[in-house]
Records
---
Amino acid sequence: MRIGLASSIFAAVLVTAGAPLATSACAQTPSGASAVETTFQAILANPRVIKTLEDIKADDDTALAEQKRITEIPAPPYKETVRAEYYLKRFQELGLKDASIDTEGNVVGLRKGSGGGRPKLVVSAHLDTVFPEGTDVSVKEKDGVILAPGIGDDSRGLAALLSLIKSINANEIATVGDVMFVGTVGEEELGNLRGVKALFRDHADIDGFISIDGLGITRVVNQATGSHRYEMIFKGPGGHSFQEFGLPSAIHAMGRAIAKISDLQTPAEPKTTFTVGTVSGGTSVNAIAGDARMAVDMRSNSTEELLKLEARLLDLVKEAVVEENARWNSDKITVEIKLIGDRPAGMVAMDSPIVQATQRAVSVITRGPRVTFAGSSTDSNLAMSLGIPAVTIGGGGDGGNWHSRNEWYKPVDAYFGPQNALFTILMLTGLDGVTKPALAVRQGK
Ligand SMILES: [Zn+2]
């Protein structure tokens, strides 16, 4: 064994984990933490895995170059095709020969295991960015900091995935379960998770889901913040403010609605929030407004609370219209309510194998046990809402100014991202001839 990162990781774990090494797959119908512990030790001791970890580290510069290349291919919402075609080509070049682009635009490459197709684990990163067509996406560098819109979110995840695929194929890592690698479309706001929605519609046999999105590996997302967003368009007759005084006003109706919404009470736990984010309307200071519109955002970590809030808020808006009409003895004010954003909520239990596996992987890679679990809105939302075990993990490195043109990235320990993903995947899918999958096959699917 060469003395390198992997072997020192190996030594560190012997100290921190304090558990004896398992050398064979002797777990019986493993589940939860104990199953993960058994498989973890055996995977850690496997020479092929150790070599793969070293290769991932050695691939660090290449992965960074790839990250920059991907960033410079624009991928606005609903216009991810050019980037998807490039990503497909890379999948194929790295050994996923049968990879293809599905009907929604996702790049999908299946890497078969020895277990007849199950469990099936999706490992993904998202192709789309928030930036509209025409945004300058050229990569700039200043004092070791890399600047470009989308350089981290999610070019890092996409590059980490490629580095991982390259290294596991080069080392002929054989899993028990299947791994489906996916570059998804439509993760960002406007896309409303259309990529993963299609993926889960087309593949009923997915048993687990990992999204590589975000950077630092010590933050793991196991809660999906759901959101519902509405545009509400108030319409009325409009008229002169003096001559036609007595007509109802679209702006006044909307004002009534906003006042009611402002007084809503929501629970702190599970965190549930609302805001009227934007308003517009009217034509002139001396006109009774004939139109007004607002956009409302509601979020919660619980689907039940989200739906409760939504029902109450929509009722309040309708009440506001009734009151404005009643005030002027009219029936002219109407409101059109349009759903413009829909992301489901969900949560994965701390003792589920996917969370346990991630926690184990992070502690071995960083040599520390610290993992922060968080709620966020990512591609994992959909899996979690369907009750499918899922986590969102970091691609490695450091960065900030998300969703802004000043987004920056620093490749600090960037290879931790794909290394962490490797460990997590192998614990879940099982290493052929060495461990059994910790990820359970979903019954009846
Ligand atoms: Zn993202």
---
Amino acid sequence: MPSEDLKKHAQDVLSILGNDTKKSVNIDDIKGQLERFLEYGVPINQAKQTILKKYAGSNAYVSSTLERTKLSDLESDMRSVKIVAQVITINPKEITVKGEPRQIFYGILRDETGSVSFTSWHDIKVQNGDVVEIANAYTNEWQGTVQLNIGNRTQVEVKDDDALPKEAFEPKKCTIEELQPTMGAIDLSAIILEIDDKQVEVDGEKKKVFSGILGDSTGKAPFSAWYDFKLKKHDTIQIKGGYIRSWKGIPQITFDEKATVSKIKKDAIKVDDVPRRTVKMYEIEEHPGLYDIQVEGRIIEIQRGSGFILRCPQCNRMIRDNQCREHGTVDGIIDFRIKCIVDDGTGTLSTTFNKDLSEELLGKPELELKEMDPKALSDTIKDALFGKTVQLNGNTVHDQFGTTCITNTVSFVDQDTEEEANKLMKELEGDM
Ligand SMILES: [Zn+2]
């Protein structure tokens, strides 16, 4: 960093130290200390803060010197960040901490560069649409995305709208393939492939939510509308001002009465225009979640825990010795599954085939499988699946535990299509 810049930062630090402290330290001291921090690779903001803490001892006004971090620059495990953003949603939630019920608040913030989910450990008394300055917050990672945390030492202040540049409020034109939980307001045209409504309770108030699936020429995505836009199946709509939430890592389009939703008659999208995205494993690994994709690969491992298992009748968790860790002693319900690893040369994923998919793949009904001894059963599974190439359809999740496909349908891919084609060609030639 040029000496001039360093001096400015040192001046910054000095300017907010009280007069008493100023007597014991001068600008060259601070500059020297900053220099040393930088030599050790400490980011400038953190270095300034550490020096402030050393002299001022308090966190309260430390954050005021920090430069604002844009939401797209947030990374996990940042301490004391300051942001300016608009509150997109904020909702209370009851959780249990060390056996005690506690109310927290969670929601989404956005600025001109993107959006971020946040959790607050106390009521920050802001509303949807407010522009806020949040100082001394910290970040962590949850299911592969960065989260902002508002703790006891975080300051939240409501600002005027012009604290954010105008483009922060302007929807960005995008396609379904481009959707990401970190983007701000969107401008998206898509066809409604499925829609359903249900009653939910939000803050003790009954609300109707319309949810379903949207599609365009790049893929499909789930959506939920918190307002009755009179949407119908196969309508093509343009949503301006909706935003993206992460639902199990998968981008979900969310919009309410603040969004503008119009129906498109001309250039309407047809159902046939919406493809099922075919992806490679490495692409799956690049996204926290993908919705309704198709991927092909070879089963390289049948995992332990495949076969018959018992589930808790109340929570569906797998149980042992009729003991559920949530519900105590229960009468387990018998279930069947196959867990395996699938590889396509560019990456791997793990997936579980439920009873129906397993029966289909093994070509045997559950009753027949039940009569086998464990060895015969595991041989049957291995013979039918190991080394076989399968095509999976489903949603994928990529997080610290690896890549998982929640498979909806599965089928074997005939690896000998080329050989078969040759055979067919020969037969046809023989006929001539
Ligand atoms: Zn249970």
